[in-house]
Amino acid sequence: MGICATKNYYRIVLLGNVGSGKTTFCKQIVDAYLGGFSKSMKLEFRKHIQANILHRMVAMVGFEEMEDTLISDAEFEKNFRILQEATVADFEYTDEENFTYVQEVLDAAIFVGQHDTVQNICNALFLSAPWDFTYFRDIRRIFQKHYEPSREDIFTCRKPTTGSCEYIIRHLHVSRQGGKMIRKEVIIEVIDVGGQKSERKSWEKQIELADAILYLVSMTDYAGKEGGVQDYYSYLSDNNKCNLKYTQELFKENFLVPKTRYVPIILLETKVDLFKKMIEENSPAMRDCFPEYKGPEGDFESASAFLSAQIKKKIMDQVKRKRQHILATKLDRMPILRQNLTSMGNFVMTFNQIWDKVIYALNDVKQIELIGERGQNSKSSVHEHLMLKKKALRNHRASVSDPTVGPGTPKRKMNFRRSITILTGATFRGSGTASVEELISGNNSLSIPMAKRNSVQGIVRSRSYHWN
Ligand SMILES: Nc1nc2c(ncn2[C@@H]2O[C@H](COP(=O)(O)OP(=O)(O)OP(=O)(O)O)[C@@H](O)[C@H]2O)c(=O)[nH]1
Ligand SMILES: [Mg+2]
């Protein structure tokens, strides 16, 4: 019998390179399981979206066309300076009451954003970082006085994660066993962490506490080449590396750390929508990035199969060389899923499919290890490992206190609402708490009534919550 048969509480950690879609995955969770985005969250997103656009516009100053226009067009130059000042002053330029930029900045943003020079730069860079440039196609709507972000805007909004963030959901898992429909309620704690180098220090600790890892890889990373458009994007996003070589290395590093050994990994390839478009338009062509690619150009299926193999290749080469058969089998049987995380489809169904794979991988990793151990005639280190993990998780839960409420928070209580609001960079005071036991026993509702959420008072800026 698998370890999943008796357990109904799981902790899943999302790992992956910067920009691979971890937070976007969590937004889908908020949307599908936690009552959607409240008015206050939308206001936070509005700030980020508008600030993102202003920063992107100002960063374009390095382009030759931009410099030329600034010299030749006095009206453009005047408006551009207003934006430069606004980005430096940041929130001083916002009108607290209406929570938006002052009229002068709004007008300047529309003027500059709709100018041909800016639009041309955006079009040229669009596929390299669509999340940054989509908004430029809609600049008038976004900079109107009472703009409220749509669901699509929220899913496109990019804000690198700092610290970690937990989302606790109740999922009714529906599966088929021997022609029978099985329903099982599970409580799942999904952990979002940052992918930037400075944030990755917490990963090992997260792996230690995780039942499974959902490892995200952006399929568009295939296009990352030195000197290409990706370099411009890297420049915009704190010099973070987004190319496939780097993604492969990072995955290898995490797959091979001893703490990952007994933890099942599910590979989630994201941005499949963009990848499909890039492949079909040969922008760039697969062979330009991988001379060894033998498949037909413009063919999505063979390009994605090749890419999945590439992601695993480095690790496979190493574990085979070192004759680490158990790891090789684990890698070989690792479930792979592809997803467009910005899709507005039914995420509960998508999550159900992901959960199928998690359950499969949980059982499979244990089987692989047991078979390996039998071969080596050793004691059950799998059992030992599971006991250690249980203990680590118990200690962790006992030590978690809630930073939004301050010292004296009752131990073993988890603040699930905090997790939702941190998504926007803000935290609400006075949100409710529930112990894991309460959640499991169903004594506490996970969905937060809309009226209650909107009435929460006071917003605290927070860099979210860190490990001690
Ligand atoms: N088109 C498309 N865009 C996506 C997809 N997944 C993520 N994105 C976009 O990619 C950008 C980065 O996604 P995030 O979810 O912030 O990435 P992250 O992994 O949380 O990044 P860090 O917090 O910096 O580690 C966002 O603007 C998303 O809109 C996808 O499947 N399709
Ligand atoms: Mg993130």
From TrEMBL:
Keywords: GTP-binding, Magnesium, Metal-binding, Nucleotide-binding, Transducer. One of its GO terms (cellular component) is cytoplasm. InterPro entries: Gprotein_alpha_su, GproteinA_insert, P-loop_NTPase. GTP binds at residues 192-196. Mg(2+) binds at residues 23, 161. It comes from the Eukaryota. PROSITE patterns: G_ALPHA. One of its GO terms (molecular function) is metal ion binding. Transmembrane segments: none annotated. Pfam families: G-alpha (PF00503). GO terms for biological process: adenylate cyclase-modulating G protein-coupled receptor signaling pathway. This is Subunit alpha of guanine nucleotide-binding protein. It comes from Chloropicon roscoffensis.
